[in-house]
Amino acid sequence: MAKASWCKVSPASGSGNGTVEISADPHTGREERSTTVTATNSSGTKPTATVSVKQEAAPAKFTATAATVSIAAEGGEAKITGKGNVSAISFTDIDTGDDTPTLKVNSSAMSGWNGGSNKTLTGDPGATAEYDWEVSVTIPANDTPEARSFKCTLKGEEVETPIQITINQTAGASVISVTPTSVTLTAAGDAEEVSIKSNDSWTIS
Q1: What is the reported pTM?
Q2: Which residue from 29, 95, 101, 130 has the least number of CB within 10 angstroms?
């Protein structure tokens, strides 16, 4: 059986007594990996000799690209991205209002993941290599004239410290309307009532 592609041997051939150098590509997976290097003679029964090769695991990793994410006043999906090799990613909503976010690993949707009770990543891709992750959180439209912020927490299973994420949303439009839009006062100046609808503070001039 051929050695794993991550294991490098140089030179790949020779004659008589000699030495070879065994090296490996950097390993980003959370678990140790192993393979077997086989030396085979060219003649007769082609006898073989083998070397077992193991490569140490990389430390558990779960990081975010940034601790803050921006989204427009219209709302929609705020995308939180990062890298990791953990076996599970959990999501805790603080005040976004979305307790069912979605997750992609290496651009592929993680079916059935809801960040809470079902936080394990199908196939445990981090066991063998580091991956890119993306969590999408749905933020409602901002119907106020002030910018606002939401918070949530993400945690990798094998990493002790959770990641605190702030989602900053730009201000919505300041709106005002009056009903009715015209009034006629009596000669005596009796008052007429006008209703004002606004999402902002206002003054009369």
Answers
A1: 0.86
A2: 95
Residue 79 bridge partners (DSSP): 136
Pairing type for strands 68-71 and 163-169 reads parallel
Q: Which helix (H) or strand (E) holds 116?
A: none
Pair of tokens at residue 55:
């490569």
Q: Which two tokens stand for residue 27?
A: 């390993």
Unique residue bearing structure tokens 């695991």: 57
Summarised one tens digit per residue, pLDDT across range 109-134 is 999 898 888 899 999 999 999 999 99
* Strand intervals (E) in 25-158: 33-40, 48-55, 62-64, 68-71, 76-84, 89-93, 102-105, 108-109, 131-139, 148-156
Range list of H helices, the chain: none
Question: Closest by alpha carbon to 91, among 81, 83, 101?
Answer: 101
Q: Are 111 and 87 in contact (CB under 8 A)?
A: no
Partners of 178 in beta bridges? 196
Residues 29 and 58 sit within 8 Å (Cβ to Cβ) = yes
Q: For residue 115, with 0-12 CB atoms within 10 Å meaning exposed, 13-18 middle and 19 or more buried, which class applies?
A: buried
